[in-house]
Design brief:
The two termini are about 45 Å apart. A hairpin with a 4-residue loop joins strand 2 and strand 3. With about 475 residues, this protein is mainly alpha-helical. It is elongated and about 95 Å long. It holds the Pfam family EF-hand_7. It comes from Paramecium primaurelia. GO terms for molecular function: calcium ion binding.
């Protein structure tokens, strides 16, 4: 379809966009009531009428009027199309993308059929795109070009070819249209979960490639802590040092905690880490024996990247409206209203109604938060990764006995009677024999995580005590 939104002109004002983002849908519906009551026949509004309707939304009505105005009538006076104005305020409001779409959809559903017909779709596209370009200071496409585009878009949205587009069809198309999503992100600070997820996948790919580059430079299976620290300062030059130090500390602590699962206690290294945190310069030498593997790095950098994707203005501040997307991206599950408010009260430690990057990272690093994320499957995977010395995803079958014992090590520590411990040891022997039969049957010398995990899941069906030990039904 080509580029609808051309390169922007110099009229773009971020401060104006920030002000418009404070508008709520309830305030906009009050403006609609004013139009219905006093200007029901007005397709166009002069400056006085525009100010009368929208003065409650902004203290900058004159500037907005001139941005949206066209010369109309024989006298050539400036006026604003009523529907363009409503579309503009809705699109640049602080509401969710779905709410904005619903408002625009209903605005042009002239026959109140809960669907858009072809001509209604053309009007929708013409008014919405022109309004967006005017506010953002972009080149405004011609009416004829948008009319042609409207017909094409209608055919694309009308999947069942019944000559009507319902809201689900309309919304699905707008979500999948990347050019529109890029515009909404850049100029209105709005993004859908779907588009944010696309961006997140790309950023995580870049993070993995970056770490692979460091591995090649180090010529080692892991990156030394001091080298990682230098690299983080280099790639995040524009971000404050406290945030980078918090990120680095989280990566190191997470690495040491991962190593302590299923292996000998690493309390001395944790003590060294705390000493380093207390005085970075004096205790820099304490990091010399610590190195980071890729899986640990990616686990933590994911939290960092989620914040960056959500922080569309790159100001390192997120409000409660953005918190939903932040949690949704991180946990891959949409949080409800009560969860969002609960998390806001926990994360916002200085009670300024803003979540700063450090607050987010420190919240995820808290013992309570880490324990909540440590599902049985995650813990088992960490034990598995400790035996993946080559970081190739495969473990030699000769390690199966130690791997099984380390998988159950934490549970066995909690047992006080010898009989229970003996029972687990007996179970481990049985599982070892069964697993060895499976891999030998397939002529395998190595096995991967998926095979190991699936084996344990299947084994819970024949060993009743296994499910209780692993607590797999918690996943």
């Amino acid at each position: 379809m080509g580029q609808i939104f051309q390169k922007h002109a110099t009229q773009f004002e971020p401060s104006l966009i920030v002000k418009l983002k404070s508008i709520t849908m309830r305030e906009l519906f009050d403006c609609v009531d004013t139009i219905d009551k006093y200007y029901p026949q007005n397709c166009y509004l002069n400056l006085e009428q525009f100010d009368d309707i929208f003065a409650t939304l902004t203290d900058n009505c004159i500037d907005l009027f001139h941005r949206l105005a066209d010369q109309t009538g024989e006298d050539g006076k400036l006026s604003v199309h009523t529907f363009e104005a409503l579309a503009a305020f809705a699109i640049f409001s602080g509401e969710s993308f779905e709410t904005k779409c619903m408002f625009v959809f209903r605005l042009f559903d002239f026959d109140l059929s809960n669907t858009l017909e072809e001509q209604e779709m053309v009007s929708t596209l013409q008014c919405a795109v022109r309004a967006m370009c005017k506010i953002a200071g972009l080149v405004i496409p011609s009416v004829s070009m948008l009319e042609k585009l409207g017909y094409v878009c209608f055919q694309m949205m009308d999947e069942d070819k019944n000559k009507h587009v319902d809201f689900d069809e309309f919304y699905e198309w707008t979500v999948q249209y990347d050019e529109l999503q890029e515009f909404m992100l850049l100029y209105s600070g709005t993004q859908t979960y779907q588009y944010a997820l696309k961006r997140m996948i790309n950023v995580m790919d870049e993070s993995e490639q970056q770490f692979n580059k460091w591995l090649r430079e180090c010529k080692a299976p892991q990156v030394p802590a001091i080298k990682l620290q230098q690299n983080l300062y280099q790639i995040y030059k524009g971000i404050d040092q406290l945030s980078i130090d918090t990120l680095f500390y989280m990566i190191i602590e997470y690495t040491l905690r991962s190593k302590s699962i299923g292996q000998e206690d690493s309390s001395q290294q944790l003590k060294d880490l705390w000493a380093w945190k207390a005085d970075h310069k004096k205790n820099q030498h304490l990091l010399q024996n610590i190195s980071i593997k890729k899986s640990d790095y990616l686990d933590i950098i994911r939290a960092w990247n989620v914040y960056s994707i959500t922080d569309v203005n790159q100001l390192s501040i997120i409000n409660i409206k953005d918190l939903k997307l932040l949690i949704w991206l991180y946990e891959d599950e949409e949080p409800d209203y009560f969860r969002i408010n609960q998390e806001m009260s926990i994360i916002d430690t200085n009670h300024n109604n803003i979540i700063e990057r450090c607050e987010w990272m420190q919240y995820l690093c808290s013992e309570e938060s880490m324990q909540r994320r440590q599902t049985p499957q995650v813990l088992m995977k960490k034990v598995f990764d400790n035996y993946d010395e080559e970081q190739c995803g495969l473990i030699p079958i000769i390690h199966i006995d130690k791997l099984l014992r380390d998988t159950f090590k934490q549970q066995m520590k909690k047992m006080k009677d010898f009989k229970s411990i003996q029972s687990v040891n007996s179970l481990i022997q049985q599982l070892k024999v069964e697993f060895m039969k499976q891999v030998k049957k397939n002529n395998q010398s190595h096995f991967d995580w998926q095979q190991y995990y699936q084996f344990l899941v299947e084994a819970t069906k024949t060993h009743s005590s296994l499910n209780k030990l692993l607590n797999l039904n918690r996943d």
